[in-house]
Design a protein that fits this description.
The complex is a heterodimer of chains A (268) and B (360). Chain A is 32% helix and 31% strand. Chain A has 268 residues and is α/β, with parallel strands linked by helices. The longest helix of chain A has 19 residues. In chain B, helix 2 packs antiparallel against helix 4, helix 6 packs across helix 8 and helix 7 packs across helix 8. By secondary structure, chain B is an alpha+beta fold. Helices cover 64% and strands 12% of the residues of chain B. In chain B, strands 2-4-5-7-6 form a five-stranded mixed β-sheet. Chain B has a two-stranded antiparallel sheet with strand order 1-3. Classes of the chains: A alpha/beta (268), B alpha+beta (360). At the A-B interface, helix 1 of A face helix 6 and helix 8 of B.
Amino acid sequence: MNASALIAEDEPLLAANLQAELARQWPELRVVACVGDGEAALQQGLALQPDLMFLDIRMPGLTGLEAAQALAEDWPDDGKPFPLIVFVTAYDQYALQAFERAAVDYVLKPVQPDRLAQTCARLRATLRQRAQPQAAAPALQAAIEQLRSLVGAAPAAPAAGALRVIQASAGNTITMVPVDEVLYFEAADKYVRVITATREHLIRTSLRELQPQLDAQRFWQIHRGTVVRCDAIVSALRDESGKLTLTLRGHADKLTVSRLYAHLFKGM
Amino acid sequence: MPHTHTTLQWLWHELRISIPLALVISLFLSTMFREPFGRMLVYSLCIGMIIQGLIEAGRYGLAYRLRKRFPDNIGAQHNWPGWGFMAPWVVASAVVGYYAGYLLADLLTGAQRAPGAAIHSPRAPLLIFAMVFVVSFGCTYFFYARGRMAAMEAHAQAAKRTAAESQLKLLESQLEPHMLFNTLANLRVLIGTDPPRAQAMLDRLIAFLRATLEGSRSGSHPLSAEFARIADYLELMQVRMGARLRNQLELPDDLAALPVPPLLLQPLVENAIQHGLEPKIAGGRIAVAARREANMLVLSVRDSAVGLAGAPAHGSRFGTRQVRERLVTLYGASATLELVPAGDAEGGTIATVRIPLPPA
């Protein structure tokens, strides 16, 4: 069967151009979806399970990088092999350096036909290799390794001094929650749930904004929507399918570690 | 600026004043009181070094303590604790240093005399004491003045550097590479598919680039030109964002000729798009308007986007800071920039600039 691709690009002209250029250079490639934001890229990616995904970096909703990470976290174990990801960007020094280091495929906008031809040739070769039965399994693992190194390479936010208390407002009261008492933070739409041993608070901020203010040594990200205080973890249990679950001190909740962060838990 | 030079350099800076001074004093004393030059040199070096050592130790020590307690003390930052501390310290150092240096020199020359008896003259002790004080204060003042000059120079250089940096950042923010390359990418596509539209887009880009590069030089342009440049920018963004961006410019005719600083509103429009509309999947509306309020010209940039949560972060961004700085330089306290959540059903943020109208 011919390879399928998804294009995520928020600028309609550029999306149409990439699609046209791909049609010229790789006529058998089926573009199964063309979406304009990161959220849709994730949903459509999971639903259609294409072989290739072209992700613009700067997109509304999720960035291309975030969409790829979320896709790696949610990709079904019994699904097709993880798509080959190609990032598309206009100008982003940091991202380019990181892409080079992580050996991630990328194309620059405006898309140069020559450069795209090279990328297509490489993608074709990889897909052919993947068609051999024994090579399919490591696709997701390889993508995870690459994405991990990209997460680590994101330009570090200026150390704003670790946050000491979380100010959670409810009605007219602002509750001061010392971060030492927080067991974990969980993203909930535009809010973040702050869970302590006894209570739960909602704060009006995104996890993305909150995380740089936390001490990274103590607060570990274990999923794109979960950050846990590492000394609140009692144990990490790995089940037969390789899924990691955390038990917490003084709280009944069990937390799931996504594949992207599973490497944090390894016996010493 | 503590560690700008090494210890050796510092020692050289201190000694190249005090050693020649000791030589001059010895020469003066030996001719005045007909004493051997060598012996006078030993005494004046010993006394001079110890006094200088004491004064300098006190100066650095006091400045260090002061810095610890009052980190904002400018003098202490440059190792100057102030005359209030230094005057008594110099007196004490001179007295102690004089006697200690004298004893040391006695030891070195093997002489056993009462203090002040190295010179066989009744007037000598008084004269020497006077000299010790004068020289001590003179040298302290000299080091003080030199330190101040170095500090002022460093200050001036730092100011120059910041000015150059902010100029560069201004230009870079107006010619944001991401915007430029994305626009070029779109142009490249349009050239193939829709040449007339490509030409129109290119004309907008040229007008925008010209205004940006000239904007950093010329002092003011009519409000109508300001709106035309914003229209160029929004048109460029429109090509890129398609239906996600709707815009609306409102400029009353009687305000069109008013002079405004070039591209004053540009960073605000850019902020509204970059941090307000671009992250929103559905996009939104941006409205730029001018109106008169008493004797003020009120310019507002409104987006219908992320709103409240985005607003505080909005305010600290380079764009808004830069507009504020420009307003302060041009109008002092009479102009303001204010960022508030829109507060109606549509949401979003309103940035409002108020500048005084020129007297009619």
